[in-house]
Amino acid sequence: MKLSIHLAIMTLFLLLVGCGEDIKEKAKTNLPWHSTVTKEGYIQFLGVDIGKSTFKEMMFKLKLLAEPALFEDANSGELTLEAYFGKKKFGILEARLIVEMDADEALLKKMQKESVGDRDSTPSNHWKYQLTVKNTKVANDLRIWRLIYLPTTDYEMKQMNFFGKPDEKVKVTETAEYWFYPSKGVVLLYDTAGKEIFYYAAQKDYARLKASLPKEAVMRLH
After folding, report:
1. Could you tell me which of 96, 107, 59, 101 has the C-alpha nearest to residue 82?
2. How far apart are the C-alpha atoms of 33 and 26, rounded to whole Å?
3. Span of 102-106, 122-126, 199-203 with lowest mean pLDDT
4. What does the domain layout of the chain look like in residue ranges?
5. According to the model, what pLDDT value does residue 31 have?
6. Can you spell out the DSSP letters for 60-100?
């Protein structure tokens, strides 16, 4: 009987150790510099294939819910379909996420025309439109072409070096610059006076990602 009890305890201990290793390994993969590139050129991060996974698949993977909405730049009139995840813990780090779904201009215009209620203004000079239930379902099935990771804490240069040497750097302000990693599908906004911002997109969407970056070191929160 004692031997059985000892075996049971040992088995439980080994299972717990194994679970602990799995948790540690998962926490590592959730670090912003631990994204990987698939053979097809998609970016795997947070368990999501950026450039391939749909918004619905992402919510299922993260076990989180977010409401997609339509945004219009008040100056240019450009429309984007985005969703915002508030502060959450991913592995050992806290961050906010913004994802943009891939939708053509015709679909975006249709969603704008069919939007519910009055549009809302945002501090970043954008108009926000609430989608109908039908269009929300449509948005859920669209692929995510861009993910923006906004950490809640500042990073040091030694952590930024985990990304390796960037192919290109572009100065944005006196304290901030973009670091470009096209082979990794990553753009990093490194700011010595503020928080960093990490952008991810599939390799086929990298030029589009680069063109979409703000010309100033700011990011709106929905």
Report:
1. 101
2. 13
3. 122-126
4. 31-212
5. 79
6. HHHT-----EEEEETTT--EEEEEEEEEEEETTEEEEEEEE
pTM over 0.70: yes
What pLDDT shows up at residue 8? 44
Please count the other Cβ atoms lying within 10 Å of the Cβ belonging to residue 12.
10
> What are the tens digits of pLDDT across the range 38-87?
999 999 999 999 999 999 999 999 999 999 999 999 989 999 999 999 99
Return the number of other C-beta atoms located less than 10 Å from residue 21's C-beta.
10
Could you tell me the CA-to-CA distances from 127 to 23, 96, 112 in Å, in that order?
A: 41, 21, 11
DSSP per-residue letters across 119-130: EEE-TTSEEEEE
Task: State the amino acid at position 11 in one-letter form.
Answer: T
